[in-house]
Amino acid sequence: xxxxxxxxxxxxxxxxxxxxxxxxxxxxxxxxxxxxxxxxxxxxxxxxxxxxxxxxxxxxxxxxxxxxxxxxxxxxxxxxxxxxxxxxxxxxxxxxxxxxxxxxxxxxxxxxxxxxxxx
Length: 119
Prior knowledge:
Blueprint: H1 3-16, H2 23-26, E1 27-35, E2 40-43, H3 44-56, E3 62-72, E4 75-84, E5 90-101, E6 104-114
Parallel strand pairs: 1-6
Antiparallel strand pairs: 1-2, 3-4, 4-5, 5-6
Protein backbone atom coordinates (compact mmCIF):
# COMPACT_ATOMS: atom_id res chain seq x y z
CA UNK A 1 0.00 0.00 0.00
CA UNK A 2 1.06 3.56 -0.59
CA UNK A 3 0.46 6.71 1.41
CA UNK A 4 -2.08 7.75 -1.26
CA UNK A 5 -4.17 4.59 -0.96
CA UNK A 6 -3.76 4.65 2.83
CA UNK A 7 -5.12 8.20 2.89
CA UNK A 8 -8.18 7.18 0.84
CA UNK A 9 -8.83 4.19 3.12
CA UNK A 10 -8.53 6.44 6.18
CA UNK A 11 -10.86 9.05 4.69
CA UNK A 12 -13.44 6.36 3.83
CA UNK A 13 -13.26 4.91 7.34
CA UNK A 14 -13.73 8.36 8.90
CA UNK A 15 -16.81 8.91 6.73
CA UNK A 16 -18.26 5.51 7.65
CA UNK A 17 -17.72 6.18 11.37
CA UNK A 18 -19.11 9.72 10.98
CA UNK A 19 -15.92 11.16 12.40
CA UNK A 20 -15.06 14.78 11.56
CA UNK A 21 -13.11 15.20 8.33
CA UNK A 22 -10.09 17.47 8.73
CA UNK A 23 -10.34 19.05 5.29
CA UNK A 24 -6.91 20.73 5.40
CA UNK A 25 -5.26 17.39 6.19
CA UNK A 26 -6.78 15.53 3.23
CA UNK A 27 -7.20 18.17 0.52
CA UNK A 28 -4.92 20.79 -1.04
CA UNK A 29 -5.97 24.46 -0.80
CA UNK A 30 -6.56 24.50 -4.57
CA UNK A 31 -8.55 21.24 -4.59
CA UNK A 32 -10.83 20.73 -7.63
CA UNK A 33 -13.86 18.42 -7.78
CA UNK A 34 -15.49 17.61 -11.11
CA UNK A 35 -18.58 15.39 -11.06
CA UNK A 36 -19.79 15.30 -14.66
CA UNK A 37 -22.83 13.18 -13.79
CA UNK A 38 -24.31 15.79 -11.46
CA UNK A 39 -22.65 18.82 -12.98
CA UNK A 40 -21.09 19.65 -9.60
CA UNK A 41 -17.84 21.57 -9.66
CA UNK A 42 -16.31 22.54 -6.36
CA UNK A 43 -12.95 24.00 -5.48
CA UNK A 44 -10.67 24.78 -2.58
CA UNK A 45 -11.18 23.76 1.01
CA UNK A 46 -14.73 25.15 0.91
CA UNK A 47 -15.48 22.89 -2.05
CA UNK A 48 -14.01 19.85 -0.28
CA UNK A 49 -16.09 20.71 2.80
CA UNK A 50 -19.25 21.00 0.67
CA UNK A 51 -18.48 17.63 -0.93
CA UNK A 52 -18.02 15.99 2.50
CA UNK A 53 -21.28 17.56 3.73
CA UNK A 54 -23.13 16.32 0.63
CA UNK A 55 -21.91 12.78 1.28
CA UNK A 56 -22.92 13.00 4.94
CA UNK A 57 -26.32 14.25 3.79
CA UNK A 58 -26.99 10.88 2.19
CA UNK A 59 -27.97 9.66 5.66
CA UNK A 60 -26.62 7.97 8.75
CA UNK A 61 -27.09 4.47 7.35
CA UNK A 62 -24.98 5.05 4.22
CA UNK A 63 -21.63 3.31 4.13
CA UNK A 64 -18.96 3.46 1.44
CA UNK A 65 -16.85 0.41 0.61
CA UNK A 66 -13.69 0.50 -1.46
CA UNK A 67 -13.83 -2.39 -3.92
CA UNK A 68 -10.74 -1.73 -6.05
CA UNK A 69 -7.90 0.77 -6.22
CA UNK A 70 -5.43 1.21 -9.05
CA UNK A 71 -2.49 3.54 -8.63
CA UNK A 72 -0.13 5.09 -11.14
CA UNK A 73 2.32 7.82 -10.16
CA UNK A 74 0.36 10.60 -8.42
CA UNK A 75 -3.09 9.24 -9.43
CA UNK A 76 -5.40 6.66 -7.88
CA UNK A 77 -8.59 5.24 -9.41
CA UNK A 78 -11.13 3.85 -6.97
CA UNK A 79 -14.30 1.80 -7.48
CA UNK A 80 -16.74 2.13 -4.58
CA UNK A 81 -19.96 0.47 -3.48
CA UNK A 82 -22.35 2.76 -1.64
CA UNK A 83 -24.76 0.93 0.64
CA UNK A 84 -27.73 2.06 2.64
CA UNK A 85 -29.08 -0.16 5.41
CA UNK A 86 -32.49 -0.17 7.03
CA UNK A 87 -36.03 -0.94 5.93
CA UNK A 88 -35.27 -0.19 2.27
CA UNK A 89 -31.63 -1.18 1.69
CA UNK A 90 -30.06 0.15 -1.48
CA UNK A 91 -26.75 -0.05 -3.22
CA UNK A 92 -25.09 2.34 -5.61
CA UNK A 93 -21.74 2.66 -7.31
CA UNK A 94 -19.09 5.35 -7.61
CA UNK A 95 -15.85 5.58 -9.47
CA UNK A 96 -13.35 8.33 -8.78
CA UNK A 97 -9.96 9.34 -10.11
CA UNK A 98 -7.82 11.26 -7.66
CA UNK A 99 -4.65 13.24 -8.29
CA UNK A 100 -2.39 13.87 -5.31
CA UNK A 101 0.05 16.67 -4.57
CA UNK A 102 2.33 16.44 -1.52
CA UNK A 103 0.25 13.62 -0.01
CA UNK A 104 -3.12 15.36 -0.29
CA UNK A 105 -5.98 15.19 -2.80
CA UNK A 106 -5.66 17.95 -5.40
CA UNK A 107 -8.24 16.71 -7.91
CA UNK A 108 -11.27 14.42 -7.72
CA UNK A 109 -13.07 13.44 -10.90
CA UNK A 110 -15.89 11.03 -10.25
CA UNK A 111 -19.31 9.76 -11.17
CA UNK A 112 -21.91 7.95 -9.13
CA UNK A 113 -25.10 6.12 -9.94
CA UNK A 114 -27.79 4.29 -8.03
CA UNK A 115 -27.77 0.66 -9.01
CA UNK A 116 -30.98 -1.11 -10.06
CA UNK A 117 -30.41 -4.00 -7.69
CA UNK A 118 -30.67 -4.50 -3.94
CA UNK A 119 -28.58 -6.60 -1.58
